Amino acid sequence: MSAPKPAAAKNSLLLSAIRQGHGAFVHGRRVRVLAKVLAEQIPQGASVLDIGCGDGTIAALIAKSRPDIFMQGVEVLPRADCQISCSAFDGNTLPFGDGSFDVAMLVDVLHHTSDVSVLLREAARVSRQFVLLKDHLSENAFDHATLRFMDWVGNRPHSVTLTYNYQSRAQWNAHFGAARLQPATFETNIPLYPAPFSALAGRGLHFVVALRKTSG
After folding, report:
1. Which 8-state DSSP code applies to residue 93?
2. Percent of the chain with pLDDT over 70
3. What is the pLDDT of residues 101-116, one digit of tens each?
4. What predicted TM-score, i.e. pTM, was given to this entire model?
5. CA distances in angstroms from 36 to 40, 108, 119, 138, 178, listed in the order given
6. In 99, 109, 181, 189, which residue has its Cα 20 to 30 A from 11's Cα atom?
7. CA separation for the pair 37, 29 (Å, rounded)
8. Angstrom distance (rounded) from CA 51 to CA 107
């Protein structure tokens, strides 16, 4: 077997360093904050489908703080070490009937898709009450560049598909309306990053919205 090429070895070392640095300074705080914010939005005794659950860390933290709820995950490539029960799906169509769960949850998933409306409508279909969504807001080129860099740092070392499909508030509102969803709460003050990083990586680029299903 031939030795790795210098450029490939250098890239591998760089990605390893990024993964370790992100895990040490960002990931732990991020999952704790998100789990707390999301748990506060889930109704008592609800069943929750975590769409694109990854390793299930956030869902497991939610379940730990909210033993009254039931968590089920779904992922394109389910991980053997997933911390919650997880089923496979094709990335577009959820393998559940209409209204199978009280809440469908999407945490930083839709901006990785080529068309955010497809999976958002599926989430609305399988939920009975709410779609709980965490994603990004991009209102200008600087927002997009910042989010693109953050996405690359957080996900490139894990080989996550990066489409950088960020939406503005107006675009999100259009998607919500098309999926017959109405914001019940919309929160952008989410302390994911400590100072001074929050001045760049925070500043309203992240939101959590509880979307209530409407009849028309």
Report:
1. S
2. 80
3. 999 999 999 999 999 9
4. 0.83
5. 6, 16, 24, 24, 29
6. 109
7. 12
8. 8
Full strand arrangement of the beta sheet holding 47-51:
86-88, 70-75, 47-51, 101-107, 127-136, 206-213, 181-187
Which pair of structure tokens corresponds to residue 72? 């089920």
Query: Which domains, ranges and CATH numbers included, belong to the chain?
Result: 6-213 (3.40.50.150)
pLDDT over threshold 70, residue 180: yes
Which residue carries 């965490």 as its tokens?
Answer: 134
Beta strand pairing call for 47-51 and 70-75? parallel
Residue 75's closest CA among 161, 150, 146? 161
Strands (E) across 47-191 are located at 47-51, 70-75, 86-88, 101-107, 127-136, 181-187
Residues 6+ apart with CB under 8 A from 53: 59, 73, 74, 75, 82, 84, 86
Q: Cβ distance 205 to 147 under 8 Å?
A: yes
pLDDT score, position 8: 52
